[in-house]
Structure formats: C-alpha cells, structure tokens
C-alpha cells in the first residue's frame, strides 16, 4: 500500500488522512506548523462592504476571538470552495468562492464592485498582498492579522527515520511556507540523492518553487489548487506506483 507523509497543520491533516484512507492510501501525519490565535484590536464590522477569507484558519481564529457573529451578514469572498464551505458552516449568509488562487479572488472581489471597504482577517505571514492587488480597482482593504502559523523546530524522530529509510512513497505539501519549513527540517538529514528521488506532491507551482530551490526535484503538481485535486493527484500517483 502507498504510504504518504502529510505535512499540513491540524485539524486539516487529520481530514486529509481520512480522505487518503478512503482511497486506500496509508499516511503518517507530520504537521510542520501549528496555528496560534493572535489578540488583535479588530475594527467594528459595521461599515465594511465585504470580508475576504483566504484560509479556514482565519475563520477558526475569528471563532476563537468570539467575533464571527458581527461579520456573518457581511458578503464573504472566499479564495476557494473549501474555504467557502467552511464559511457557510459557520453561518455566513452570503458567500462567493473564487477558484483557489489569490488572483482569482482579486478578480471576484473586483467584479463585485463593493460600495465600501473590505475587511481581510489574515495570517501574520502573508503569501500575497491582497490590499495591493485590489488598490488599482479603487478598493480599500483593511488587513488585520488574526492568527500566526508557528513553525515546528524539528520533525518527529520516526518521520526522520522513515524519510532516510525511504518508507514514504511521497510527501503532500499545501503551502509555500510549509514547503520551506519541511525543506529546512529535512534537508540536513537527507542526502542529495534522496532529496532528488523523494516524490513531492504539491498544491501549486508556488509551493513547488520552494522545494526546487532546496534541490527537491521530483515534483508532482495538482491540476487545481484544491483538496479535491490533491486527492486526485495522490490517487493517480499511488496507482502508477503500485500498478493498481
């Protein structure tokens, strides 16, 4: 049976493991980051014409802070279907989903022609500047970091051993920062030849770029930046490797 290493944070790591198991793929969880809710001085919800959501972690952090109720009736613009689904589950009444990328989210928000400013609850470490991207469209964005993803300082001993002994058929990576952290934690233990042959299943080219910079060269890309596409990639890869 194919055995993959899942690096995304909890609780998403467990959800991914369950989906892999349903496909007949075994997995080991080794989150390289964990979420920490910040204590921001958030602006009042009134006056905002929309809210941008680029991560389910932002929704979880807002829930931790007890501020979701005030924002639920504001039109929400989610980066992808999964984030949109989570927003609806948490009670947002108007949710539009982009196609999984920041560029598609910018387009979706720009086309909405909002009559006022946009609120953006973000992570402390931004992979893209939503405010700058929307500025040419004349839209003001108020960005408030509500969570931080804390990098792990090491991989579990059994995971490091498994990597050096080629026990994992591949590694699943969902963000550029997680790829950077994984590469940093693994690179001192893996010789160059193992780095070159270890399959890295990546959500996007942006994720893959961080691995290529660290000499991981066996890169597989999802057709679309979504969990469904990652599962399709994992299944196709497992079937190719096992001949099933």
What's the short version?
This protein has 244 residues and is α/β, with parallel strands linked by helices.
How would you sum up this structure, described in words?
The chain is an alpha/beta fold. The protein folds into 2 domains: 121 residues, Rossmann fold; 116 residues, 3-Layer(aba) Sandwich (Rossmann fold). It is built from 11 helices and 11 strands.
Question: What descriptors fit this protein?
Answer:
six-stranded mixed β-sheet, Rossmann fold, five-stranded parallel β-sheet, 11 strands, elongated, 244 residues, 2 domains, alpha/beta
List the helices and strands and how they pair.
Layout (H helix, E strand, L loop, with lengths): L2 E4 L5 H11 L3 E4 L3 E5 L12 E4 L2 H10 L2 H4 L4 E3 L2 H9 L5 E3 L4 H11 L5 E6 L6 H5 L6 E11 L5 H8 L5 E4 L2 H12 L4 H6 L2 E3 L2 H8 L6 E3 L5 H16 L2
Parallel strand pairs: 1-2, 1-9, 4-5, 4-7, 5-6, 7-8, 9-10, 10-11
Antiparallel strand pairs: 3-8
Helix pairs in contact: 8-10
Q: What is the level 1 CATH name of the largest domain?
A: Alpha Beta
**Strands in their spatial order, largest beta sheet:** 3-8-7-4-5-6
How big a fraction of the residues is strand? 15-25%
Distance between the termini: 10 Å
Main sheet specs: 6 strands, mixed
- The succession of helices and strands, N to C, reads EHEEEHHEHEHEHEHEHHEHEH
Shape: elongated
Structural class: alpha/beta
Return the average pLDDT rounded to an integer.
93
Count of separate DSSP helical elements: 11
Instruction: Work out the helicity level.
Output: 40-55%
Quickly give the CATH architecture of the largest domain: 3-Layer(aba) Sandwich
How many domains would you count in the coordinates?
2
**DSSP E strands, number:** 11
Note poorly predicted spans. Answer: none
| Gyration radius, in Å | 19 Å
CATH domain topology of the largest domain: Rossmann fold
Pfam families: HEM4
Organism: Devosia chinhatensis
Protein name: Tetrapyrrole biosynthesis uroporphyrinogen III synthase domain-containing protein
GO molecular function: uroporphyrinogen-III synthase activity
């Amino acid at each position: 049976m194919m055995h993959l290493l899942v690096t995304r944070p909890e609780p998403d790591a467990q959800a991914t493991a369950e989906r892999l198991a349903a496909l007949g793929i075994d997995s080991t969880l080794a989150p390289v980051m964990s979420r920490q809710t910040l204590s921001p001085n958030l602006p009042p919800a009134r006056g905002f014409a929309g809210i941008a959501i680029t991560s389910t972690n932002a929704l979880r952090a807002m829930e931790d802070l007890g501020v979701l109720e005030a924002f639920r009736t504001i039109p929400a613009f989610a980066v992808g279907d999964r984030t949109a689904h989570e927003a609806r589950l948490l009670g947002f009444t108007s949710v539009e989903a982009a196609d999984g990328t920041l560029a598609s989210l910018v387009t979706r928000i720009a086309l909405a022609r909002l009559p006022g400013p946009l609120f953006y609850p973000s992570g402390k470490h931004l992979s893209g500047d939503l405010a700058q991207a929307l500025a040419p469209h004349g839209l003001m964005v108020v960005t408030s970091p509500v969570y931080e993803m804390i990098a792990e300082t090491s991989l579990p001993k059994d995971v490091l051993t498994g990597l050096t002994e080629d026990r994992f058929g591949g590694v699943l990576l969902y963000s550029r920062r997680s790829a950077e952290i994984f590469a940093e934690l693994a690179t001192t233990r893996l010789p160059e030849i193992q780095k070159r042959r270890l399959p890295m299943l990546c959500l996007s080219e942006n994720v893959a770029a961080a691995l290529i910079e660290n000499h991981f060269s066996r890169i597989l890309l999802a057709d679309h930046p979504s969990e469904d596409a990652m599962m399709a990639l994992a299944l196709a890869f497992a079937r190719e490797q096992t001949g099933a």
